[in-house]
Amino acid sequence: MNKSVKFLLLFMIAIFVLLLLNINCDWFIFFRRNKKLKLLLRKEGYSAFNPVFSPDGSKIFYLLADIGNSVKNGGHLRVINIEGSVDRLLLDGIFGSLAISPDGEKLILTTGDIFYDTSSIIIVDTSGVMVDTLQIEVSIKDVEFGKDINEIYYFRNGLGFYKYSFIDSSENLVLELNESFDELQGFDIKDDSLLFFKGILYFLAGDSSKNFLQIFWSKFSPQSSKLLVGTTSWAFYTTGDLYLLRIDTNTHEELKAIPYSHSTIVQPDWSPCGEKIVFAANDQTGRASSTGFELWILEKIE
Length: 302
Prior knowledge:
- By secondary structure, the protein is mostly beta strands.
- The chain has helices spanning 3-21, 288-291, and strands at residues 37-41, 46-53, 59-66, 75-81, 88-100, 106-111, 118-125, 130-145, 151-156, 160-165, 171-176, 188-190, 194-197, 200-203, 208-211, 216-220, 227-231, 242-246, 251-254, 263-270, 277-283, 294-298.
């Protein structure tokens, strides 16, 4: 092979490599992790999921499950400092979903797993001490606090979304949806008037809706009802990234938050200042079976 042919071949290889590095190539050898990402928690043999910020942003409450049982089977309640230190158990048990009250003084959990229906809700304080228990005749999925700390929202398979008041023990249907799901894949409520679920924004007062990008595990920004974060991972085994969704302009932005070349991202949550997002993610390139879901923080959200 003469020198000119060698030079041409090397030149073409160099161009090919440069192209791969500057396009959305998902080959793991060309993957570059976002510099704004920080690993918060990794526990060998376990999966951490459903993280929620404390109101002051100093702690993150989350659920932890044995990887052999999968996150779908639920986990026990723990808390960790934002720096990744002082990780401790708050409440042992099997809990499927977790939410924090607007005042930051209470945590609400569904008992059991998130794949099969559950019919028991417990409320604890931030130290893990039991405050209240609610038994519901019909099984429910997922739970979120309302604007009032004495009201909660949840989904009943085949029926829709309900609001429950702990003051007068009343239960009211707020959005009828005659569908059933193995996994609800998250929903969020804002100011008791906006409900976002699987790419659809429901206006509860006006009984109308608007379609957006289909994102899952969505969360309204604490700073604005016109900004949401969600993921295109529609299940615990599908790959996807985080997206910012702007309600007023119906536009979206990929945050490029995947920590590995092929990752599942689920259950994001905003920091109180709206500048950070914590989420659960795993590595789908071969390490997921041994490491499970980890907790990551994406910083400097603009």
